[in-house]
Amino acid sequence: MSGEILLSVDDVSLSFGGVRAIADVSFDIRKGEVRAIIGPNGAGKTSMLNVVNGFYHPQKGEITYRGRTRARMKPHEAAEQGIARTFQNVALFKGMTTLDNIMTGRSLRMKRNIFWQALRHGPALDEEIKHRRVCEEIIDFLQIEHIRKTPVGALPYGLQKRVELGRALAMEPELLLLDEPMAGMNLEEKEDMSRFIVEANRLRGATIALIEHDMGVVMDLSDRVVVLEYGRKIADGVPDMVKSDQKVIDAYLGAGR
Amino acid sequence: MGSAREGRDANDTFAKLLRSHVAERGQRPAFRHKDFGIWQTWTWAEVLEQTRAIAQGLLSLGLDRGDTIAVAGANRPRLYWSMTAAQMIGAVPVPVYADSVADEIAAVLSHSEAAVIVAQDQEQVDKILSVRDRLPRLRHLLFDEPRGLTDYDEPSLHALEAIMAKGRAALSDARLAAALDRRIDEGVGADPSVILYTSGTTGRSKGVVLSGERAIAAARDTVAFDKLTDRDEALAYLPLAWVGDHYLNYAQGLVAGFCIACPESADTAATDLREIGPTYHFAPPRVFEALLTRVEIRMEDAGALKRWLYRRFMAVAKRCGEKIANGERVPWSARLAYRLGDLLIYAPLKNALGFSRIRVAYTAGEAIGADLFAFYRSIGLNLKQLYGQTEAFLFVTAQTDRAVRSDAVGPPAPNVNLRISPDGEVQFKSPGMFVGYFREADKTREAMTDDGYVKTGDAGFFEPDGQLKIVDRAKDVGRLKNGQMFAPKYIENKLKFFADIREAVAVGDGRDFVTAMINIELASVGNWAERNNVSYASYQELAANPQVCAMIEKHVDAVNRSLSEEAMMAGAQIRRFLILPKELDADDGELTRTQKVRRGFIASRYAPLVEGLYTGASEASIAAEITFEDGRKGKLVGTSRIVDMAPFPRTKDACAA
Prior knowledge:
Strand content of chain B: 15-25%
Oligomer: heterodimer
Shape of chain B: globular
CATH superfamily of the domain at 1-78 and 209-257 in chain A: P-loop containing nucleotide triphosphate hydrolases
Number of strands of chain A: 10
CATH topology of the domain at 1-78 and 209-257 in chain A: Rossmann fold
Distance between the termini of chain A: 35 Å
Number of domains of chain B: 4
Number of helices of chain A: 10
Shape of chain A: globular
Largest interface: A-B, 13 and 10 residues
Radius of gyration of chain B: 27 Å
Order of helices and strands of chain A: EEEHEEHEHHHHEHEHEEHH
Structural class of chain A: alpha/beta
CATH architecture of the domain at 1-78 and 209-257 in chain A: 3-Layer(aba) Sandwich
Strand content of chain A: 15-25%
Helix content of chain A: 25-40%
């Protein structure tokens, strides 16, 4: 996996008041890879994702995406540039159906204005049919046909996570950020989710950055792993290397502090 | 029958039938499948084109007349077409249960000597590849859905799509197209049309060979019987390998020319049913039961007005709905109330269930509770019972539209000869009856009588109105000392229709009278206990409660009353019963994995209890070993009170008959 660099984070620091969430972290994400960010609780993993998709603005350092070093960017700008994400705590529209939730992932790609869409006629209808097709392909891909018309609030957690992934995929993202996609899942759900992530990466061509606590999953899925502890990067490399790194073992086992 | 039978000789195979539909109704819908959220439809003309492409593709793989082609997967149009394509080239399709494990598939594939298997998806392909080394005759694997299969490095694995493209290209050559047509013409009705493997609940599964002309003759009879036409529509959601699907959907669909809709996935079948709104439907009793439970739970959650309306009008339906359905005389006031109920409750309810357009619905397979059956009949669903088996190509008996009852399975279906052997076994000769078991001539001989009737292995008798009543498996039917017939399952089923009774074991073969051992249903009796402030800590404690015993006694009494009304059964009323101190469990070997009681095993294990039932004791004790869920063993010591029942006298009806 020696693709070109899609995103690079250089010397980024982020503080909330006196708390340093991220301190001088640099790493990169290459096109087409699955990149894991791991670390103990409070290591700054979610903050890192929030920095990448423009939700937080780092005090120091810069982020280069698709070769362009960016200044402050807002989350919707990140979305427009092909960065999609899912959240640690599922963030869906609970009252809307699975299908509608996934359709919202298409909204950036819908060109007709609200008046055309309200009329639901002519070009707006053609457009909706086209986008519905894409969503249906995702529904088929994630095997959630049976809950297509179910409000997501009524779904079990594992399925909500799947719908959230569906919505992110609907954006046809170039970079997909997954924040603990398997938290709280049982073994079977984890296996399903792993399969979807692998297929999203291989067949749908999405570059993936994921935060995950299940080490088995991380080591199986990812091409490279970056390890954070207390906001600092302590290791970066292929899974096998990271696994045997003494600093990483210490961070997880709490030794040497 | 007249017009339906015309052209019998011309269309004696399914491949010829398909061709004839294109001439008669080429633009009518033939198949539907929900894909990507939309119902895709194929006309008869399109189906013929697709099927021919598969057939030519199979020829290009070297398949020939007489080969067998297995089909594994859910109800998908292309899997149905693959069966017709096999029949076109004179090969024999063998549908396989999609949920069978690899070993079972291997057994069927090797016994049927399948040369090709058409599999639905990766799941099926993986199963077959895992047993590949046991299948030397299997030459090619075709798959319908490529998902997940693109990376497989297996030279004998082909996408069905690719094989069809090859076939299509070949068929553009007029000579090859004509050759395929000739092949279809050369097929004769006496050729084997399909091999259906029995589910194997009673021993190893056997391959039932059916011929085209017989299958089509049987389907024609029942299509005429239920007046099915090309305007009908059915949802194909039953397993492909089951005779019911092959008959009700494939054979009847191809004979009548109606449209078969395939659900999007097994999980969406209920939604798909509502969207399609079939006019012809089949479901086993447990499906109807599950639906009714769902309706009742949702009504509990409904607002007060809706609940009141529901109760009010369901009472009306109960009073006169069935009578109206059976065409009996009903006072006009009741008719009016029923019409109003239809407007407010029955029609919306049927709509919610997807039953709005159903003209004919069947259920079969197991006994159906009278209340359950009456519920659907009374809201205006034309639900009927049939009795059949694979060897008959389904129909042996079927109820006619206006003579329907829950406790019998109907008179013989059209052109079926039915008789009861001297020892009580049901035997038949039918238009669709099987040719033989595949590669098991001895088994075929065993299953037939010398004069050509098929032995069903079921015991039954005819009711005065000519309807057949199945009581039990023939080998389980015994006799009391006085010669009275004793059908344990028949009595047990009557007991089990009470929600408070979970399992029952009837004893009586070679005894003076019938006794029963009963398992209470913890959910419903427990619920009763909560409502009536009866505290209990375990099943055992609840089972020993005198109030519970009194409740069960009432149920047994009701069963006895209903037995007393039947001439054949009046002498087999339950004289004594007890409530078992332990729940029957498959882990202890008391039930099969499909939750059927193993009577012989239970009788020996609970011998002290059985003895108590026949020695006149007022209670009996047992010390049984039990297995906990985690596999540990323990001992259970329990005592059961034995209750004496007074039998009902034979009723007048029963005496007269």
